[in-house]
Task: inverse folding
């Protein structure tokens, strides 16, 4: 009799768990879609293809390009504990690239990524280039004024056959 009670208790309880699991799955799916949309906007603001967000590993590579880090840093993401440090550095660099300070990088991009990426993507933040400098796609102004060389002196015209030579 004790066994029958435990089986019936599990069967009635599992219905509640499935509804709870479904609600959690829908919340997770909503957060995932919102995060993808936020990153898509960040990538397009930085002049990169937005669709790159949905390709695993390539999205991190594009993010590294946005913050002007070498592509081999992608390997650092698979090393335990090193990946945390690299993520922290990249969060700070992403904040700088959009004209935000280090506190935004720590709290917005590193600790509360969901919120920070939404602010960068959907907010008024503009991409200023890697580390907050000029965007690499824009030409940099020359540092020295350009000086044009003087024109060479005009050459004398040769005498023509109709004029007699002068002696």
Result:
């Amino acid at each position: 009799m004790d066994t029958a009670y435990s089986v019936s208790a599990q069967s009635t309880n599992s219905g509640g768990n499935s509804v709870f699991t479904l609600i959690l799955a829908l919340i997770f799916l909503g957060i995932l879609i919102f995060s993808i949309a936020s990153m898509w906007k960040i990538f397009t603001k930085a002049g990169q293809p937005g669709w790159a967000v949905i390709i695993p590993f390539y999205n991190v590579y594009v993010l590294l390009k946005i913050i002007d880090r070498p592509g081999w840093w992608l390997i650092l993401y698979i090393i335990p504990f090193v990946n945390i440090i690299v993520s922290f550095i990249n969060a700070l660099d992403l904040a700088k690239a959009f004209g935000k300070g280090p506190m935004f990088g720590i709290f917005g991009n590193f600790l509360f990524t969901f919120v920070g990426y939404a602010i960068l993507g959907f907010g008024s933040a503009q991409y200023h280039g890697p580390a907050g400098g000029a965007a690499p796609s824009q030409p940099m102004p020359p540092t020295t004024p350009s000086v044009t060389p003087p024109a060479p002196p005009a050459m004398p015209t040769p005498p023509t056959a109709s004029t007699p030579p002068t002696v």
